[in-house]
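1st attempt posting a full record on here, be nice pls
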Amino acid sequence: FTIKRLNLMTAMYMVVLLGLGIDYAIHLLTSFMQERDDGNDFTTSIGNSLKKSGTGIFTGALTTAVAFFMLVIARSDAVRELGVVAGFGILSEFVAMIIMVPALLGFRNYRLTKKGKVESKLLEKLTPRFMIIPSLGTKIKNRPMLFIFLMLAAGILLATQAVKVKVEGNMMKMEAKGLESIELQDRMVKEFGMAPDGMSITMTDLDEMRPLGKRIKKLASVKAVDSLIPYYPSVKEQSVRAGLAEKFKSEIAPQKAENSVDTGLLIEEIYRLEDNLLEISDLAFMAGMDRMFHKLNILTGRNEEGKKVAETVIDRLIAAIKENPEAAAGLINFQKAFVPPFKEKLITMANTEEIAIDMIPPFILDSFRSKDGKDYLMNIVPTQNPWDEEYRKVFIGQLETITDKATGMVLASNQMMEIAGQDGIRAAIGALIAIFFLLVIDFRNIKLSVVTLFPLLLAFISLFGIMAITGIKFDFINVIAVPLLIGIGIDDVVHFNHRYLLEGKGNMDRVIEIGRAHV
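the predicted structure (as tokens):
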């Protein structure tokens, strides 16, 4: 009814919401089981579980929702929508669990009473692995300073590495491993010195585009520049070329067919033709043009792996020229028949008529001119993979020395990563500030609020240190998780502190038991 859509971020974080929502039910159930195991009746157990866990759950849900809502300060629509969806999702889950869990427990109690069954020891049914939590909690209770020292030492050690965590600059590394499309991109760079993803410029004046294209083409990071310019020279260029065309016609007009043929040179040119066909075959394979690739392989006698396996027309032609003594005489006759019409074609092609833009074939013109005919497109092909961060900085930096009008997915992705990093930091700082104020309002104690935040900050420093040690980098996706982890992480500390305040000093054993719910 509000946003009316899912985007990449909101769809992905639906899984996170599932985990967070069930967490509230587990806390209520754990408290209820604890009360029932203490011998309290159903009504008292429900009341106490809501009293002891409900407030903590509410504060935890509120702090988590606030952390999500802080994402609305982001500049990216996708991230802002994530903040709204996740924030309201948390509050909706809290309301659903607070209403439904007691109701379902009441229905269960009704069924048990009707069947005459007695409530068993619920916590004792838990598997042994969950008993580790109370056991560990007891040890921490008995020797708190030792564990505080160990945690601080580990946190400080990891903090020394946290500054080394890096940001992933290549968005292609976020793709699934083994994708053929990604491998082919790298192969194009290796074999052809060019990448498929480049930059583009649109301009309204072709005369302004001409000098710009020449300057861009000279950049070391640029392989080629594609536009209408090669098909539509300027008036000055046409004038110069018209003079050259007239000179060409005057030189070719008296030419006649010679009475001899250089068979060695002819064979060399045939070999060059074969090499060109092999290169076109490689390009067809890279472009996924399977039919052309197959036909060219037949023409050059190659199999799918590029190995020569069959004799071809080219082979037979070369053999005929080499082995047949009469081949030269036949070629001379062919030359005499071929030269006159070919010369006529060349003279006709050397047309000095002024070129108009509408004379350009539509399949070319439509590729570089807008539908309304007002704008023209220039595509810039890079020499290397622009998704690689180091090269991208060079490529974009060199382009920016000439023009600020270049655009493309490479530049957009680069800006998205920068925005995501800035948004993540801003949202994290905003979430910490907002959560601290909520804790002060809830606990009415600044000291306790600071103590509640401290384990979270220590955990984050440790997380960044582990990321640096293991080589995990921040990227467009996980950097947005930072403010979310703040809300999720503070949730656990809030539950412990609330339960401790309700149970009172000296009852840490009972507080520790709720660790099962956190696990």
